[in-house]
Amino acid sequence: GARVAPALLRVQQGLLVIKVHSGATEISVNFIGDLEKFEELKEHRFIKNNFNIITESSLEKFNSSVVIDKLAFKYNGDIQYTLNDVSLEFAQGTLNAIVGPSGAGKSTLVDLILGLSDPTNGKVLISGLSPKDCVLKFPGKIAYVPQDIELISGTIRDNLTFGFDREKWNDNYLWGLLRIVNLDKVVERLPNHLDQEIGERGTLLSGGQRQRLGIARALNTEPELLILDEATSSLDGESEDMITRSLIQLKGSVTIILIAHRLATVRAVDKLVYLTGGKKIAEGRFDELRSKVPDFDKQANLLGL
């Protein structure tokens, strides 16, 4: 009995882990089922451009504007709404940011824009369609970069082309992606360059390098709507500034929505939206928001902005 007991305890611990993660697993399994509806992205013909990431696509015209109308959301079993009566519009080709204190509903809003959650009331429209219908009709046109980047055990090339036939992507294109996120010089110094192994979940890279590689991967499908949820949180000030300037240069061809706590990241955006308590308090440019929201102005003053 003494010899068997430790093994039984490990089994018990394993069952507890399964139970704890069963809810998230169910969502993932259902999502995998939805992915079976997706058609493989049509082959692209690469063309030279300023960023080396925009390619000529055979997909029909996609309008990257986002319209949010009287949006409300609450989780199953909750009485209180996480988001309530939020109306917004992000115009095509603009750089936007959503700010606010922790628990304001920023990440929930992103989930609704991406179609990962369904609104309790109201609607989200991208290119005139619901997010789920839009993803099905325009695969690859919406890209998302989370705060915590998940990398696979393999090479830099494997991670940049994850989910696609790696032979379809030429080296110049992949180097262009790395150049945008200020990672090209780092990869050039590696012995095998694009074919350098990065270890399990990218353990051979620093946190900032993993984050930049994740952003480069998101750009691989030439998205016209790019959503970043605290995606620059692991970067040093210089790298964050370089990526921010790169995002600014993408304005006009890509609609960008940032979730950010660092106010220095959002000073140059076209529209800032301030959320608190699940409601939109104000929107406008950086200086306009400072005049409308005392808490925002206080944070900016503390940071010397």
What does this structure look like?
By secondary structure, the chain is α/β, with parallel strands linked by helices. The chain is built from ten helices and nine strands. It has a six-stranded mixed β-sheet, with helices on both faces. The chain has a three-stranded antiparallel β-sheet with strand order 2-1-4, with helices on one face. A hairpin with a 2-residue loop joins strand 8 (271-276) and strand 9 (279-284). The longest helix is centred in the first third of the chain and has 32 residues, at 4-35. It is globular, with a radius of gyration of 21 Å. Residues 41-59 have low confidence and may be disordered.
List keywords for this structure.
six-stranded mixed β-sheet; three-stranded antiparallel β-sheet; single chain; 305 residues
Q: Outline of this structure?
A:
The chain has 305 residues and is of the alpha/beta class. The protein has helices at 4-35, 106-114, 131-137, 156-160, 171-180, 184-188, 207-218, 237-249, 286-292, 294-302, and strands at 66-73, 83-90, 95-99, 121-126, 142-145, 225-229, 255-259, 271-276, 279-284.
The percentage of residues in β strands lies in 15-25%
Q: Helices and strands, in N-to-C order?
A: HEEEHEHEHHHHEHEEEHH
From the N-terminal CA to the C-terminal CA, the straight-line distance is 66 Å
Please give the order of strands in the largest beta sheet: 5-6-7-3-8-9
Give Rg in angstroms. Answer: 21 Å
Task: Give the low-pLDDT segments.
Answer: 41-59
Number of strands: 9
User: Structural class of the secondary elements?
Assistant: alpha/beta
Mean pLDDT, nearest integer?
Answer: 79
Number of helical segments? 10
Shape: globular
Q: Describe the largest sheet.
A: 6 strands, mixed
Q: Estimate the helix proportion, in percent.
A: 25-40%
